[in-house]
Each structure stands twice: as structure tokens, then as C-alpha cells.
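Thread title: Can someone regenerate the structure for this chain?

I was given the following input by a collaborator and told the matching C-alpha cells would be attached. They weren't. Posting the sequence so someone can regenerate them.
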Amino acid sequence: MKNRKVYIFNSASRAANYGIGTYINQLTSCLSTVDISFDVIYLHGDGKEISVTEEKGYRQISIPNAHCRNKKELEYYYRNVAYLLDEYIIQNKNTECIFHLNFMTNPLFISSLKKRYRCKIILVCHYTNWSFSLLGDEKRLLSIVKDKSQRKKSTNKQYYNELKEDIRMIKKCNRFICVAEHTLNTFLKVSDIEDKKCQIINNALKDEYKKLTSTQKQTLKARWWIGDHTKIILFVGRLDEVKGVGLLINAFKKLLQTHSNIHLILVGDGDYNRLFTETSECCTKITFTGKLGKKKVQELYQVADIGVIPSIHEEFGLVAIEMMMHKLPIVVGDTGGLSEIVKDNVTGLKVPVKTLNGKRTILPQLLSQKIMQLLDNEQYASELAENGRKCFLEKYDISSFRDKILTLYKSL
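Best answer:
Regenerated them for you:
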């Protein structure tokens, strides 16, 4: 029987510090517990030379970035990366190479790998550029695909070209993995990719929930300078338009009209200046923490009363399962992966995403009403939190993810 060597690829980017970075951490944690050798390779890294570090029994290889002005130069970059990897890729008849890719819109790279190595290629779709640009508006995407006249507009042409590049990449790989069902459904609507090469494997997390006594929670709140009777509304994620942070701030301002003992904590980095202008009259009630380490975020999960993820579009929704794991009642935008994760009025509350004047959005008034339901009914909030944690343990615990990944590798 052949040995398997897995090479996990990612592109150094902002997303690598958020959902994809978490995914790779969970994946490497799973593989470290089984008899599979693996390395992690980052493209477009910092520095001027290839760097190799070894940590926890596997290598992290960083390939430096190159400024590419056009598609031809980008093709040279990927061809050269494939050549440079010769020193690090095991090639013998007794070792099966599996390349596990975690970025889209890059068919040139798969072509370069296939030309140089005997390998099987797994492609995981964590997000697509066009879905974020369109704020998850599938109807608009379908109209662009069907109507050539719409593609004459430069922005629509860009979305269409990105989609076509994604499809080319999917067709070149051996297995195509989506982290959410809606993503795969969209690709099947707009392309002729083979069903048999496609699979859904949801993101997952290792269970790190720790139940605190009331005294421990009080002590932790004091450490964060939070008053005993203050209700904490928590957001975690990038401070981008697609995450609905501005909408949450507007909803919070409405809540302040009837609830004086609440405080909004926004964890993540992004466009602070734009958001500061929206908080001028209630700035003492809102805290921007910036990006925090894992331990600090977990502490906030433990002291928060309500988690809110008001995304206009979300490919999966890793923060949602993180909050559910920590038994935090949540309010989410009814969109993308969040729609699949949360069962309304059972494991959380959903706020509809509407299209107004051609743009997808969430109405702050509706969002504030959902949050108010949880603020005003602690028993109801507790039931949702309990159900959410049960859902996490049943569907999103790391053990199920590990089994599916190992089955995937064996099927190649």
C-alpha cells in the first residue's frame, strides 16, 4: 500500500488570518493525530527567499510573492513555484502526493502542478471573489451569466471572468470540496462540472467550551472592566461591508433607546474611520478591540450575552459555530452558510436579507427587534444557546470533520 504525503496549499492573504487560517489549523490538528505526513505551503508570502520552518512535526514552506502585472507574468510565477517545489515534494512510486488547495480563481497553478508532478488535487472553496463582490446576490450572478449584454459593463465582466476561472480550476482538480451547500448549488447552476467529483464538508472546530460558574464569570467580566449588570452584545469578524457591521451599529443605537444597560463589542480589524463616524453619539457604549488573539476572543465568548453575525453574505459562518460551541445565543443574517447552520427559533434567530434599490441589506429595525427578543427573555435566549451547542456537537465537532477528510484522501 502506498504512503500518502499531503501538501496543504494556501495563498498568504487577509482571509488566511481568519476563516481559512482557522480551517488549516483544524486540518493540521486532525492530521497530526493520524499516520499521514503533511506540509503546509504558502504562496505569495513575505520576504525575498523561500523560508522553511518546522513546527509540531510538519514543515511550513513560504514562497515569496512576485509583482505580476498581467496574466502572462502570473503564469510564469506559478510555473516557477512548481519548479521551486521540486526540492520539497516527495516523488517516488511508493508515495502518493495529494495537493490540498485552499484558494480559487487560479487554474494556471493546477496546470503547473499537473505538468510537473504525479499527484491528486483536492480543491476547497472557502469563498469566491465574485460572491463577496455581489454580496451573495445569486440572482444577479445568474442574470450576468445568461445575458451577454450585461457583461458589457466592466464590473459585471470582471465577475463573469472570475467565475469562469473558478470553473476552469474546478474542472482540473480531482475533487472539489465546498464548505457549504449553497456554494456547490450555485456552481452546478452555472457550469457543467461533474457531480461525482463534488462533495460538501462543513468546517468544524475542536470543542473548547468551558462552563463558568457565576463567580468565575463575574471575575472575568471585571477583568474586562465590564459591569456586573451590563449586557454584552458581541460581534467577531472583519469590519467589512459584507459583514453588516454598520447595520449592527445602527440597530444597536435603536436598542439604546429602550435598553441602557447594554454594550456592543466589535472584535476584528478593518475600516475603523468609516464606522467611527456612525458611533459618535454613542461611542462610550461601543468598544472596538481590533484583532485579538484566540484566548482573548474566547474570554469574550464566555462573558457575552448575545452573539450577532449580521452578514449580508457568508460563505460558511465559522464564527457562528464558534459562538454556538460556547453556548452563546446568536442572531444571524439569513444568508449563505449561516442559513444552513442556524435553524430559526431553534438554534438561533435569523434576520432576512432584503434587496433595496438593487443592493442587498439587512434592515436595522428588524435586527434590533431580534436582539431585543433575547435581551428581554433570558429563558428563551438560554434555550436557543443550549440547542445551538447541541447542534455544534452533532454537526460541527472536529471528530466528524476528521473522519470525512481521511475518507476523502483514501478515495483518491
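The mean pLDDT is 93.
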